[in-house]
UniProtKB/TrEMBL annotation:
Keywords: mRNA processing, mRNA splicing, Nucleus, Repeat. This is Suppressor of forked domain-containing protein. Residues 13-58, 269-308 are annotated as: Disordered. It comes from Brassica cretica. SUPFAM superfamilies: TPR-like.
Length: 748
């Protein structure tokens, strides 16, 4: 057996797998023709196509030429102007999928048999998009054309590690093995490897069909029957066709050809036991005679057992029919979910809300069914189509944690944070919480630091959660230092939209943790000195001032409020009319509690003048409204997070990040639920574990901020430079500031 044949039979690992060097072993299943499948699967001329393709599907028939000359690194460095342009695009933004497909097409057009150049572009592309099974196939085809059969096997082995739960890539690999190797055992072992992972996939028919076709070519009818028996145990597509084909085979071939060696031996043993049962009343001679007769009749018995006796045939079919009926019963329960999956393969375009919800419902159903193996495989299928959605990765991790499979949970989290959603802050914030929860504080800090330095510098939610974690670890000074460092960085930026929120959170944190009201007040005063007054900031200040110890700083605050509700013509970033009116009402309420009658009258008169309302028409909020909080509009737990938006290859993380802002103390719901995968795909680019760098440097990605201070009505800050904001929380009346309150009793 040659080296490449041994790799096919035994499996091949191109690189050792570290804790976080594991891209997805997930599913890209059979295309059903939806969503322009010809473009999605890349069917077209081998050199490229007229439009960017997704899965790069190519023919199984590959012309293997004589070994070609290997090209050195100097060949790789010779690039055309168009290649240089496209490489510069993907280096700047590695998620620019259209640029990648154009680069591959251009390289294939120019390189032809320059395999070194082709390897470079495919290796780099597939490190970013390992789920594109068709491009693995095209890569293997290029290796086959230069006669590098060991390299073909290596590519396929990397492919089935990167897309372990893909029916299509296993079909391509098995087809290659059939066309290349003559040893049936080698080919059968490869088929059996594939069936371990995707044999129960609802859309696994192409693989089963290829296996049946191969064994029919070998005319090994007992193996064909064995394959049908395995199929009939699983609720997969085309089950009726498989049962009909099995019955036809059973009725046209003798049972001696259909039974395995074990089955034939069992039938013979059962027949011997029923015929050779001597009576106790018989003498020893009769017993010996009976045994001799039994021996002489053994050959006819085996012949009968292998015949097409109607009763034997009926029993033989009935056993498989019972399996078929049971599988059909389960199929009737899942067929609705399966039919709602319109795009089972990976694509950079977002999925529609209905399909995302269907995946959640399908996972709910399978988890309730309680079959752990089915749960794992469905999650892996889901995380092909939904690979760009952090919520499904989070759910997978939590499901595996709940089931006690921490190795699978860690593996899924590593794939999410290092490959599939590595540029989305949500997954790293979840990773920090998950690591802290499991006692790995160093990894939690590394996850936060990655967000601060690379993923989304200045993200307020990350600062809040990081500071809270340091407080939980008994290091409040580190938490204070974190706020101060981030505020100092934001003060160096022109018109930072984050700075007011950071000051508000820092003030609140200081008061609730240290109980130092004067320090908290000084932080807010500093904020008013360094940032332009705005409705959200002043709303926070008024609310905070309302429960701090006397004296109230009414005279100090009045000019700032006046500047917002009655701006002059030269003012920049003027608040909207609605915001100005709401702030005016809040200020009047504040004065009603803490001001004198003169200041109240002045504020009411100004309100009536600016917003054309008389004093009697002022929109007063009831006590219930004042005491209530809008925090439920913004405090999203992992159980109730709206469907997250994926990172698009064209617009990475442009908005829609479901932030989990900090509000006044409240209870948080328990996390969602969890699930597994195959040992990882060994990419050429290694991703470090959290404590040791966490991941390769990423370009900062834009994300929206959450106005998370527990203040008056939900109100957005002006948009940050990298994303639109999320509304802030509504007021919760606090007790007098005699003693500091427990800070943020949710997880963060």
């Amino acid at each position: 057996m040659g080296d490449s044949e041994a790799m096919v039979a035994q499996g091949y690992t191109s690189a050792p797998y570290g804790d976080y060097n594991a891209p997805a072993a997930t599913t890209t299943v059979e295309s059903t023709g939806q969503e322009n499948a010809s473009l999605v699967n890349g069917t077209g001329p081998e050199g490229g196509s007229s439009a960017p393709v997704e899965n790069g599907k190519a023919s199984d028939e590959v012309a293997v030429t004589a070994p070609g000359a290997e090209h050195g690194d100097n060949a790789v460095s010779t690039l055309s102007p168009e290649e240089e342009r496209l490489w510069s695009i993907v280096r700047a933004n590695s998620l620019e999928f259209n640029a990648w497909t154009a680069l591959i097409e251009e390289t294939e057009r120019i390189a032809q048999y320059n395999i070194a150049k082709i390897r470079k572009v495919y290796d780099t592309f597939l490190a970013e998009f390992p789920l594109c099974y068709g491009y693995w196939k095209k890569y293997a085809d290029h290796e086959a054309r230069v006669g590098a059969m060991d390299k073909v096997v290596e590519v396929y082995e990397r492919a089935v590690q990167g897309v372990t739960y893909s029916v299509d890539i296993w079909v391509h690999y098995c087809t290659f093995a059939i066309n290349t190797y003559g040893d049936p055992d080698t080919i059968r072992r490869l088929f059996e490897r594939a069936l371990v992972y995707v044999g129960t996939d609802f859309l696994s028919s192409p693989l089963w069909d290829k296996y049946i076709e191969y064994e029919c070519m070998q005319q090994d009818w007992s193996r064909v029957t064995m394959i049908y028996t395995k199929i009939l145990e699983n609720p997969i597509q085309n089950l009726d066709r498989y049962f009909a084909n099995f019955k036809e085979l059973a009725e046209t071939r003798p049972l001696s050809e259909l039974r395995s060696a074990e089955e034939s031996a069992a039938v013979a043993a059962a027949s011997d036991a029923s015929k050779a049962s001597p009576s106790e009343s018989d003498g020893k001679a009769d017993e010996e005679k009976s045994q001799a007769d039994g021996s002489s009749e053994q050959s006819p018995k085996l012949e009968t057992a292998g015949s097409t006796d109607p009763e034997e045939l009926k029993k033989y079919i009935a056993i498989r029919e019972a399996m078929y009926i049971k599988a059909k019963e389960f199929e009737s329960k899942i067929i609705g979910f399966e039919m709602a999956i319109r795009r089972p393969y990976f694509h950079v375009r977002p999925l529609n809300a209905a399909e995302l919800e269907n995946w959640h419902n399908y996972l709910d159903f399978i988890e309730k069914d309680g079959d752990f193996n089915k749960v794992v495989k469905l999650y892996e299928r889901c995380l092909v189509a939904c690979a760009n959605y952090p919520e499904y990765w989070i759910r997978y991790v939590l499901s595996m944690e709940k089931s006690g499979s921490m190795d699978l949970a860690d593996n899924a989290l590593a794939r999410a944070t290092q490959v599939f959603v590595k540029r989305q802050p949500e997954i790293h914030l979840f990773a920090a919480r998950f690591k802290e929860q499991n006692g790995d504080i160093a990894a939690a800090r590394a996850a936060f630091q990655l967000v601060h330095s690379e993923i989304s510098p200045g993200l307020v939610e990350a600062v809040i959660k990081h500071a809270n974690m340091e407080h939980r670890q008994g290091k409040p000074e580190d938490a204070f230092a974190l706020y101060q460092q981030v505020i100092a960085l934001e003060k160096g930026k022109e018109n930072s939209t984050v700075l007011p929120l950071l000051y508000a959170q820092y003030s609140r944190f200081s008061y609730l943790v240290s109980g130092d009201a004067e320090k908290a007040r000084k932080i807010l005063v500093e904020a008013l000195d360094h940032v332009q007054p705005s409705k959200p900031l002043l709303e926070t200040v008024l609310h905070f001032e309302s429960f701090l110890p006397v004296p109230r700083q009414i005279d100090y605050l009045a000019p700032f409020v006046e500047k917002v509700i009655n701006p002059n013509s030269d003012a920049q970033n003027v608040a909207s009319s609605t915001e100005r009116e709401e702030l005016s009402l809040i200020y009047i309420e504040f004065l009603g509690l803490f001001g004198d009658v003169k200041s109240i009258k002045k504020a009411e008169d100004q309100h009536a003048k600016l917003f054309r309302r008389s004093t009697s028409e002022l929109r007063k909020r009831s006590a219930d409204e004042f005491l209530s909080s809008d925090r439920t509009k913004m405090a999203k737990t992992y159980n109730g997070t709206p469907l997250a938006q994926p990172v698009s290859a064209q617009a990475q993380w442009s908005g829609g990040y479901a932030a989990q802002p900090q509000t006044w103390p409240q209870a948080q719901a328990a996390p969602a639920q969890p699930q597994q995968w195959n040992p990882a795909y060994g990419q050429q680019a290694a991703y470090g574990a959290y404590p040791a760098g966490y991941t390769a440097p990423q370009a900062p990605a834009p994300v929206p901020q959450a106005a998370a201070y527990g203040a008056y009505p939900a109100q957005a800050y002006p948009a940050q430079s990298y994303a639109p904001p999320v509304a802030g929380a509504a007021p919760v009346q606090q007790p007098t500031a005699a003693a500091p309150q427990a800070y943020y009793n949710t997880y963060y």
